[in-house]
Every structure is written in structure tokens, then in C-alpha cells.
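Q: Here's a chain of 91 amino acids. Please give me its 3D structure as C-alpha cells.
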Amino acid sequence: MNKSEAPSADQSRDQVPQAEGPGARERVTVNLTAKGAAALTELMRLTGDTKTDVINRALGVYAYLENVIQQDGKVYVREQDQSDLERVRFL
């Protein structure tokens, strides 16, 4: 990276261009709330996945849902086979 490509002092690390493509990886640090940490632990227990796998999958689902919502789509869930279909609203 030459000087013109280097981030300025007030530019966030999150804004620095990262390597892209298959197999590209990026290390991040995340500060989870107690509720977020509990959800991560529960998902690891339910799926048998690692923290990294759970977070990657969660981000993929979040991106998909945001795309649906941004394109005026709706998200619904049915908790059990015989239960009513309910619209999910994200705050």
C-alpha cells in the first residue's frame, strides 16, 4: 500500500479496502453484549458450529433479510407446523 492508498488518521479501519475473493479472510474484533454472547453460545450448542462459523452464517442471513426488506419484501415465520404464519418486523 503506498501513501495515497493508506487510510487517513480519521478513517476507520473498517473503511480500509480488504482482500476479496474465494478464501479471502478478514480478522475483526467484536464486543458482544451479554445477550449477544448468550445467543452466540446457544447457536454454537444448537449447531455444533464454531464461533466464527456462527457469526459468518448470521451475517449472511442478516444481509439476505436486509436485501429482502430493502426491496419492499416481507419476512414471515411459522414456529410450528400448525401455527399461524407471522410477519417478522426488524427494529
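Q: Can you summarize the key feature?
A: Residues 1-6 have pLDDT under 50 and may be disordered.
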